[in-house]
Amino acid sequence: METDPSLVSEAPQPAAAESPQRFRFTGSGGEYFRIWIVNLLLTILTLGIYSAWAKVRRLQYFYRHTEVAGSSFDYHGSPLSILVGRAVAFVLLIAYNASGKISFTATFIALAVMVVVLPWLLRNSFRFRLRYSSYRGLRFSFKAGNAQAYATFVPYGFFALLFLGLTAWVFGGQMPTDPEESMDPQKAHIFLGLMATAGVAYALVIPLLHQRLKRFQHGNAWFGLTPFSFDASAGRFYSIYALTGLIWMGSALAVGLIVAITAGIGGLFGDEGPAVPRGLLMLIPLGSLALLAIAGAYFSARIANLVWNATRLGEHRFESRLRVLPLMWILLTNMLLVLITLGLYMPWAAVRLARYRAENLVLHPAGSLEAFLAGAEGEVGAVGEETLDMFDFDIGL
To answer: Which of 8, 122, 213, 222 is most exposed, with minimal Cβ within 10 Å?
Structure first.
């Protein structure tokens, strides 16, 4: 008995699973070098003013050479807005540094102003970066309000203000020149205890601040009318910071042990000793680079994996697969080659790192990605772009 073809065609078919979409970076070091060298020369010739235009050209190159699902990103930022943002940040930095040469009161006031202003600056900077970023012509956006920014960041600024206020009390409101003359022995012990307590406090606060920053940044981002979300706990940040500290201390101990053994062996032989122990001292800078590469690779890989694996775009999820050893090799060789070439290898170093990061980032669509993008474009087209805020600017470098 033959089956009626019409019945077969009308039978419901299971939806095909959408395959994971791996990010790609298609740029090259030689191509980016031409942009980088022009940016560098013009920034020097204009005493830094061109750096805003240089940043736009750099971001456009990296955005336009980063692809996923067959399409690339784009960046549309205004150099003048970036220049305004940098001018604001520069004025704040100069005011803070100058206040330290006047009095503790001036320093306290300057820091208090920064605590009040920085949440607003950060929020507007995030808005600027996303508003002028796009994928397939569809813009990203950032929808956190100023109240949320202040609730997120201001409490951490009070730690700095509290520490500075206690320091001012210890030194009698004067800038410390000679600690033995600036305070009595009792206050000296109080100050040492204060420094130790502040160090422990900041070690405990910084991982939490990092988690809050990423939750604020990723959890308030949108693509069209689809929100991102972020669900990494603070405890996972603490574990990465703790293990990074252990790796740093272990690596530093190993380098210090090599230095001590080398110095000891050299002392046994004196000036007439063999050249090998003294030659080993040349390995100290290399050991320091290795130390930076080991701790930096572990921290960068684990944080990137944590942040992206905890980020969702609607129902679509991301997966970051960075590994410590390959990233360590890239960071270490990049540092060595930048030093050997007196900085000229920096464009190739940036491209190598961008390519490795992109190749290890995957988008896992929850359904049809094409249908999602088509729907997002239609929704935004119907609603229209929101009004631009004249106070949005980028303070980042």
So the answer is: 8
